Amino acid sequence: MGLFRRTRRPDDGGTADTSREAHHASATSADVVRVAGWDGDLQHLDAPVTVVVTTRSDRHAEVPRLVTVARDAFGSDADVRAVSYVADASPRDGFDPTLPWARREHVDGIGSAVNASVAAGVGRTLVLVDTSVQLDAGALTALARTADGPVQALVRTAGGDLRRGSRLVRPGALPWSDDRGDRTTDVLLGADQPAVSVPQQALVPAPCLPDERTTLTAWTAAAAAAAHSVVRTRDVGEVTRTVEPGRTVDAAVADVVASWRTWIDAGDSSAVVGGPPLPPWGLRPVTPVVRERSDGAALAWSVKIAAPAGPEGDGWGDVHFAAELAAALERLGQRVRIDRRDAHVRDDDGTDDVTLVVRGLDRVPPNPASVNLLWVISHPDDVADTELRTFDRAFAAGPAWAAAASARSGVRVESLLQATDPSVFHPGDVVAGSQGAGGADAGRVVFIGSTRGAARPVVTDAVALGADLRVHGPGWEGVVPDHLRGRASLTRDEVAAAYASARVVLNDHWPDMAAGGFVSNRVFDVLASGGVVVTDPVTGIADVLDAPTLAVARSRSELASLLDPAHPWPGAEQRAEVAAAVAAEHSFDARARVLLAAARSERARLAGA
User: Fold this and answer.
1) Which of 24, 199, 394, 406 has the most other CB atoms within 10 Å of its CB?
2) Cis peptide leading into residue 280 (ω within 30°)
3) How far apart are CA 394 and CA 377, in angstroms?
4) How far apart are CA 578 and CA 583, in angstroms?
5) What distance lies between CA 304 and its chain's CA centroid?
6) H-state helical runs in 399-508
């Protein structure tokens, strides 16, 4: 299943509205009010119970039933209020003037309904029940019984399934809606069904999220924290949920879930399997399982890359990158599979111990069954802060971007540069530029890569300067003179030979990669081959690579000087020293050791959470 292809993110040129009420931004609910809290301190009423009946905007016919139940339970003069909310672009019924509406306008989601309902104050216990729930006066009375924290009723669905509340069985993943028949514990992360009581002193504003379960879980978890208590489930009698809403997991929901990464429910196992990704962000629901853990030595890795399956993707750079990384992990005793775009989510991925997303063009949903590592190697402008927060550990091949993303997102993003494979890229028997080097590329200026559908200034400048250039790769017909074009495709060994025999290899970067300090893997490959590379400016490149066989051309005139056949480059001995240093410090073996240590550390953290 390939998901979340690269798209242009909308430009947010406006200023955030920090008022308590704001109109929803979506076209489907443009006139619906979002109620983000209440003004000032919440008024505490001298009443035993306030009953709030929430209703989706197309279920107003069910409101009288629950109002009657509430008055049967607490008396005809009980404090009963109804609030209507829009969810999933639901149709909107009119407001019966004989019903006790807290406000006669539809609000945006159940979180807004909670906040709107208590704006006028609340009794000593708030009892919230939705029109999708059926219960009698006895059950409502039992739910309102005094407690020191929020309580969710034990709910049964129309199909007979139990809903005991929300449990965090895997930190960083969506909570699980407990459906176990046995009662191992009644302590929850939060309530996730709209049959809840909250003591007056614990009330806090509910978040305005599009996902009902996450809204209720976050609200009741925060209420429990405010009361220095816990959320519990209570069997109050027969309580039935006639219909459950669909899930909508956007970036705001993903951020809330990520904030629970350090939490864990006592006694619950962190072994889970993930369901299908939930739109639009793609977090996956979880179900606890009993699974024998790997022994910690040979872990099962899934390396996710953006390349499509089949010949269409075979020439993508991340295919080679993943293959060389996988080989390095296997040399460390790991078991590795590479999943291209169509296999980002698999039916059998519950057996994976580690998911490593090599982030290029596609956003890939984390696998809640495994440790999740993110390695951003390209297109950093496409990586949102929320994406960083959804992974157990995040790495980036650009130190400058990693530092900025860490400060911006609140997530530690560690620097992990791109790498080379010294078994492919090494000086061998030929030293770049030396006398007698064979092949059509020997002693010439070489560029290997596609046109990328855009101008590549370093090539354009080299052509304009009349350099003895040879360009390999697809798409150059009509872009450079025919006599400068080499072959449309080279094998990895042929690429290595070209790097070793060329006088100078040209390199460039996407603007966002250059700004973030993402040094291209081509730079490492050329240096490991004993070659010379001239690149465009990259933030901080001198801090990570100080090599005499690497030069930066900041202008066409600087490029002209560096491409002059008379330019003095280091000799064979010094090039070999650079190649050996790059092979030792910047190999995929070195990167694999870092990633394996991170995976083992996160597995230990999750096991002990």
Assistant:
1) 394
2) yes
3) 11
4) 9
5) 13
6) 399-409, 457-464, 492-501
Positive or negative: CA dihedral 95, 158, 67, 65: positive
Taking residue 15's Cβ as centre, other Cβ atoms within 10 Å add up to: 6
Residue 328 corresponds to which amino acid?
A
Instruction: Check: CB of residue 158 under 8 Å from CB of residue 242.
Output: yes
SS3 42: coil
Residue 377, number of CB atoms within 10 A of its CB: 24
CA 176 to chain centre: 19
- What is the band of 358 on the pLDDT scale with cuts at 50, 70, 90? very high
- Strands, sheet with 504-507, edge to edge from the N-terminal-most edge strand: 469-472, 445-448, 504-507, 533-535, 550-552
In the chain, what is the greatest distance between 2 CA atoms, to the nearest angstrom?
102
- pLDDT tens, 524-582? 999 999 999 999 999 999 999 999 999 999 999 999 999 999 999 999 999 999 999 99
SS3 57: coil
Tokens coding 473: 């790769």
Question: Encoding tokens for residue 341?
Answer: 């775009």
What CA–CA distance (Å, rounded) separates 83 from 118? 10
What are residue 30's phi and psi, to 5 degrees? -65, -25
CA 126 to CA 49: how far, in whole Å?
A: 6
- Cα 53 to Cα 79, 121, 137, distances in angstroms: 11, 15, 14
Torsion of CA 58, 59, 63, 66, to 10 degrees: -150
Reduced to 3 states (helix: H, G, I; strand: E, B; else coil), residue 410 is coil
Could you tell me if 194 and 130 are in contact, meaning their C-beta atoms sit under 8 angstroms apart?
Answer: yes
Report the alpha-carbon distance of residue 114 to residue 100 in Å, rounded.
Answer: 15
**Tokens 């040094």 label which residue?**
519
CA angle 127, 133, 137 (to 5 degrees): 60
Residue 452 tokens read as: 């990328």
Tell me which H or E stretch contains 328: helix 317-331
Edge-to-edge strand order for the sheet containing 413-415? 335-339, 300-304, 354-359, 371-376, 393-396, 413-415
Query: Is the C-alpha dihedral spanning 438, 440, 444, 447 positive or negative?
Result: negative
DSSP tag of 205: P
Instruction: Please write down the HEC assignment for all residues of 442-460.
Output: CCCEEEECCCCCCCCHHHH
d(CA 34, CA 542): 50
Q: What is d(CA 431, CA 530) in angstroms, rounded to the nearest whole number? A: 6
The answer to whether the CB of 147 falls within 8 A of the CB of 199 is yes
In tens, the pLDDT along 422-478 reads: 999 999 754 444 333 347 899 999 999 998 777 799 999 999 999 999 999 999 999
Distance CA 52, CA 218 (A): 18
Predicted model pTM? 0.88
What are the Cα distances from residue 538, in Å, to 512, 552, 588?
Answer: 10, 8, 22
Give the pair of three-digit tokens for residue 475. Answer: 């798409």
Tell which residue, 17, 409, 45, has the closest CA to residue 208. Answer: 17
DSSP letter at 402 equals H
C-beta separation of 511 from 458 below 8 A: no
Contact 164, 187 (CB under 8 A): no
Distance in angstroms (rounded) separating the CA atoms of residues 291 and 271: 6
